[in-house]
Design brief:
The complex is a heterodimer of chains A (180) and B (170). Chain A is α+β, with helices and mostly antiparallel strands and 180 residues long. Chain A is 26% helix and 35% strand. Chain B has 170 residues and is of the alpha+beta class. In chain B, strand 3 and strand 4 form a beta hairpin.
C-alpha cells in the first residue's frame, strides 16, 4: 500500500476487473483513452494476464482507494522503458469532474513520487487528447510541460482530434553523499 | 503504383534477406540512430520475420532493391488502422551508397504506399536530435516537427531529446 493524504494506492486484484471494465467503458472515460472497443471480461482478463507476463514489467498498475478504503479508480505507469527510464502515466477516477478533485492531484503526486524516487525513472509523460482539455489543467498544475501537438492523432465522433504530449523530467540529483 | 522509381523498389522480405538485415541492424553506424540497444541474433530476426506474416501484425516491412541489389530495409510500424496512422522506419544498410538521394526515394516510396495503398491519414517518425541527416530528409519531404520529447533517450552517457515528425494526407 502506498499511502497519500487523500488516497491510497493498492495492488490491483482480479476481482477488481469487473469494476474496471465498467469504468473503462464509460462514455466519459472513453473520451480520453486510446481504446475504441467496448471491453468485455475476456479483454479484461487478457490485459490482466499481460501485465504479469514481463519482468521487469512494462506496466505497473494500482487501484486507487479513498481513505474509507473504497476503490475509486485505477492508475499506473505504462510503456515503462527501463533502458531510457521513462514511462507514461495512466489514470482513471470515477467521479464527475475528477480532474479538479484533491484525490486526482494526490494520485498523480503519489505516482510521480513512485516513478522518480522508487523506480528511478527520469521522465514521466502523458498523451492528452483534445477531447478532454480538463486533463491539461490537471497536469499543468503538477508542473508538466507541453512538448508538442500531434496533429490528427485520433479519430473519434467522425472527426480528427489532436493530442498533446506533456512531460515532467526528474532534475533531482540522485547521488547520496555520505557524511564523514 | 508505389514503384514510382524504376531504380528503387519495395520488395517483400524473404527469409534469405534476414542475414544481411541482422548485419545492418548490428552495425554501430546504424544502431546509433535506432532505439535498439542490444545486438540481435538470428533467433530475434526469425521471430520478427514470422511475426510479420501474422494477420494482426502492426508492421508492413519491405526490403529496398536498387538495380536488383538489396540495399536496405524499411516500412511501417505501429500501424493503427482505426486512426489510420503508422510510424515509418528506414534503414539504408549499404552505407557506401548513402548521399545519392536513395533515402529520399525510399521515404517517398513508403509515403506513397502508406497514403495511396493503405489510405493512411498520418505518418509519424521518431528522430533522435543528433540525427541531422534524417531531420533534413524528412523536412525535404514535408514532414513537420510536432514535438520535442525531452531526455527521451539515453545514449553514450547522457540524455538526448527525441523529435516527433509527421505528415498528414489531407
Amino acid at each position: 500500500m502506498i499511502e497519500g493524504k487523500f488516497v491510497n494506492l493498492r495492488s490491483l486484484e482480479k476481482e477488481d476487473l469487473q469494476m474496471l471494465k465498467i469504468w473503462r467503458n464509460d462514455k466519459k472515460t472513453r473520451l480520453h483513452t486510446r481504446e475504441y472497443r467496448l471491453l468485455n471480461m475476456i479483454n479484461q482478463y487478457e490485459w490482466f494476464e499481460s501485465i504479469h507476463r514481463q519482468n521487469p514489467p512494462s506496466a505497473i498498475m494500482f487501484g486507487i482507494e479513498n481513505k474509507k478504503h473504497k476503490l475509486i479508480g485505477v492508475c499506473g505507469l505504462t510503456y515503462i522503458d527501463w533502458k531510457n527510464r521513462h514511462a507514461e502515466i495512466s489514470n482513471i477516477i470515477t467521479k464527475i469532474n475528477w480532474q479538479r478533485t484533491k484525490e486526482a492531484k494526490n494520485t498523480l503526486e503519489l505516482l510521480i513520487d513512485y516513478g522518480f524516487n522508487e523506480l528511478n525513472l527520469h521522465r514521466l509523460w502523458v498523451e492528452i487528447f483534445d477531447t478532454i482539455p480538463e486533463n491539461i489543467k490537471l497536469f499543468e498544475r503538477l508542473k508538466f510541460v507541453k512538448e508538442g501537438t500531434l496533429k490528427d492523432k485520433l479519430w473519434r465522433n467522425s472527426q480528427w482530434h489532436d493530442s498533446f504530449i506533456y512531460s515532467k523530467v526528474n532534475k533531482t540529483l540522485t547521488r547520496h553523499t555520505k557524511k564523514k | 503504383m508505389y514503384n514510382m522509381s524504376k531504380k528503387l523498389e519495395l520488395k517483400k522480405i524473404s527469409k534469405y534477406d534476414l542475414e544481411i538485415i541482422v548485419k545492418w541492424r548490428n552495425d554501430p553506424k546504424i544502431m546509433k540512430y535506432n532505439r535498439q540497444f542490444f545486438l540481435l541474433n538470428m533467433k530475434h530476426q526469425l521471430r520478427w520475420f514470422n511475426d510479420l506474416s501474422k494477420k494482426d501484425s502492426e508492421q508492413r516491412m519491405f526490403v529496398f532493391k536498387y538495380n536488383g541489389n538489396t540495399i536496405g530495409v524499411g516500412g511501417l510500424i505501429h500501424l493503427d488502422k482505426k486512426n489510420r496512422s503508422a510510424e515509418v522506419s528506414i534503414i539504408l544498410g549499404e552505407t557506401k551508397l548513402q548521399h545519392r538521394g536513395l533515402g529520399t526515394m525510399a521515404l517517398q516510396l513508403l509515403i506513397n504506399y502508406a497514403f495511396q495503398k493503405l489510405k493512411l491519414h498520418r505518418i509519424e517518425a521518431e528522430i533522435f536530435e543528433y540525427n541531422k541527416i534524417s531531420v533534413k530528409l524528412f523536412e525535404r519531404l514535408n514532414f513537420k516537427r510536432e514535438a520535442i520529447l525531452k531526455d527521451s533517450l539515453w545514449r553514450n552517457g547522457r540524455w538526448w531529446n527525441v523529435y516527433i515528425f509527421s505528415i498528414i494526407n489531407d
